[in-house]
Each structure stands twice: as C-alpha cells, then as structure tokens.
Amino acid sequence: MGDLYLTARLKVKDDKVEELKQAALAIVADSRAEEGCISYNVHQSLEDETVFIWRESWKSKAALDEHFEKDYVKNFFGVVNEIAAEPPQITLTNLISE
Question: How far is CA 22 from CA 35, 59, 80, 88, in A?
Fold first, then answer.
C-alpha cells in the first residue's frame, strides 16, 4: 500500500475564525516533524472564511494513528470541539493517479 492521504474540512463559528487559525497553525511544525508525515498543510476557503481544509500525506495508517495520539493533536481537537459550527469531515484516501 502506498502513502495515505487525509483531507479534512472544518467549519467554525463566525466569531472563532482567528482562534481556529491560531490553533491550527500552532501544530503545523510539530505535525510536519513527525517521522510518518510526508506533508501537512492547512488551507482557508476563499468563499467562506469560516471553512478550513487540511491536506495531509502520511507514510501509513499507523503513522496517522500515531499522529492522532499526540498530546498537541488531542489538545487541538479539544479546541475544535468548542468552536466548530458543525462536525469535522475527515476523508482518508489512497492516490490512484501518477
């Protein structure tokens, strides 16, 4: 099996955009430093500033599972649970094109 890709979408409450942005950016460096991380990027929608998208690539499902067990990720999800306008949508995929 090849690399694992994660795409996540999160919509936050209108007054929580900056809080989410700060929390999301605070874990980028640690996430990228993980041995199993290939890439880790956070995006903000141009059409709706309350929508954020994560595009990540991991060496394996085990590497991603390890990522989700890190304290800083658990703390981030604690923030997300408080400021999300709707539940996060997370999709895992394998690349089928070259």
Answer: 24, 26, 12, 17
d(CA 81, CA 95): 30
* Residue 24 buriedness (CB in 10 A; 0-12 / 13-18 / 19+): buried
pLDDT tens digit sequence for 40-82: 999 999 999 999 999 999 999 999 999 999 999 999 999 999 9
Contacts of range 23-29, beta carbons closer than 8 Å, 24 or more positions apart: 23/76, 23/79, 23/80, 24/52, 24/54, 24/76, 26/72, 26/76, 27/72, 27/73, 27/76
Please name the residue that has the structure tokens 């800083």. 72
